[in-house]
Structure formats: structure tokens, C-alpha cells
Amino acid sequence: MSSKIVSIDALDAGGSKHSRFVAQNPRGDRITLEAHHEAPSDTDPSSIGLGPMEALLAALGSCSAVDVQDIMAKRRTPLARYRIELEGTRSDGIPARYTKIVMRHIGGGENVTAAQLEKAARLSFEKYCSVAGSLRGDIEIVIEASLE
To answer: What's the rounded Cα separation, in Å, for the pair 16 and 37?
Structure first.
């Protein structure tokens, strides 16, 4: 069994409409997070970081992306283009947790088929992605794949 350490430091400890934090691992890698006391608009110019729930989607997507790229490369159909779009639906109650997440794997490359991409995405979700394994339960997660 292994454990991980991440520290969270407040950037501004007092009373604005945004609470900003920097998460850092022991190697010094950092990500800026921003929690909002009021629901922000998607075009808020004062926003500087991902919200915690957006970071959760990013963690799920990046975890799966590593697996999908590895699986496709091992099958000798490497992806020349690839991205994941994640859409989370949250409950109206408190906590406003995710009740559904749609993961759209979009990619392409020589000899890559939509069926291969979808199979790799499902294999990542069902077997390899630690973040997905941590989220399983009563959250509906939909896996989609398409070529571009």
C-alpha cells in the first residue's frame, strides 16, 4: 500500500468572493485552485484557477488519458490527436456532488477506429484508472469515443 501527500496553501486567507489555494506535491509540482463563495460565471475575468469540482474532472480525465494513450500505443495504433471533454452534472442539494459524468474521448490517427478508441477508454475506466476506481459507486459515468 502506498500513500500520497499533497499540501494546500491559502493564497488569500480573507473574505473575498474567491478563496484561492495552491496545491503542491513533495516534488514541488503545483496547481492553482479557486473556490467560489457564490456561483461564478464561466467568463469571470477575476478567476485564476480551477474550482475543486473542475479539478476532480481534470484528475479523472488526465488519469484516463494516460491509460488510453498507452493502450492505443501498445496496440500499434497510436493517437496522433487526442483530447477528453468531461461534463459533470451536479445535484441541487448540499453537498452539490456529481451525480453523472460524461467522458468524451476524441482522437484520431493512422488506422485508429472509433471502436478501438472506445474499447481503450472503457478498459481505462473499468480496470486501470485509479481516479475512476475511487469515484465508482452511485455516480453514473458515461464513456463516449469519436474520431476527429
So the answer is: 8
Locus of grid cell 468524451 = 104
Number of domains in the chain: 2
At residue 48, what is the residue type?
I
Give the Cβ contact number of residue 126 at 10 Å. 12
Mean pLDDT of the chain: 88
Do 32 and 64 lie in one domain? The reply is no
Q: How many CB atoms lie within 10 A of CB 124?
A: 23
pLDDT at 13: 64
Closest of 74, 57, 56, 53 to residue 120, by C-alpha = 74
Domain assignment of residue 99, given as a range:
52-147
The reply to whether 26 and 95 lie within a common domain is no
Q: What is the largest CA-CA distance in the chain?
A: 54
The pTM of this model reads 0.84
